[in-house]
């Protein structure tokens, strides 16, 4: 069985692309090189690489949009390598799903170290753990009879975790926590369906308001991982959102 890792280098500067691909070849990767965004996306869909290095300045599609589309079809590691050094560019790159951001010019030794560091971290999909055994209809037996819970109009939850949908505020034990728009919408959707396993495709349609369901729904996992981290930091003893392997996610009511 061939266990070699694969990489796609997205770079319109041929010299830089050759240098990166040479480094990755020496590190044991099978490497493909794309000089524009359209070719890169086609390669990533076809080859399912383990790693993508991505320049943001491409002749056809902006690299940020390429990264966003990659995250719809792949959970590969993505390292942005770009001459854009502003903090805003780095934040945008990480927000749309990049795992690391390296500013040009950089040394090949630094790139090598960052690649090695990424592969010491599990991917989000590797962190999925089963929480219940699915019943024949795909819904865990333990939650099939769960019922909704709510409060005054626009409020869902209780003192432990309270969401005000009209003010778009989330409070844990009375303290407000800051969520992105997407994180808030994911939480509200799950809380409005307590005890129900919601599939990733259903979350895409509900939160992203799209009927397009890609082969991979990694973007859902990325935002849910960030949401769970923030909730865990606010209340370490609670685990409200559970992953049901092969099915989706379930919100466990925070009140009896």
From TrEMBL:
Response regulatory domain residues: 6-119
Positions carrying 4-aspartylphosphate: 55
Keyword Phosphoprotein: yes
Pfam families: Response_reg, Trans_reg_C
Signal peptide: none
Keyword Nucleotide-binding among record annotations: no
Gene3D superfamilies linked to this entry: 3.40.50.2300, 6.10.250.690, Winged helix-like DNA-binding domain superfamily/Winged helix DNA-binding domain
DNA-binding region(s), residue ranges: 153-253
Chain ranges of the OmpR/PhoB-type domain: 153-253
Keyword list, A-Z: DNA-binding, Phosphoprotein, Two-component regulatory system
Coiled-coil ranges from the UniProt annotation: none
Full protein name: Response regulator transcription factor
Native source organism of the sequence: Nocardioides potassii
Taxonomic classification: Bacteria, Bacillati, Actinomycetota, Actinomycetes, Propionibacteriales
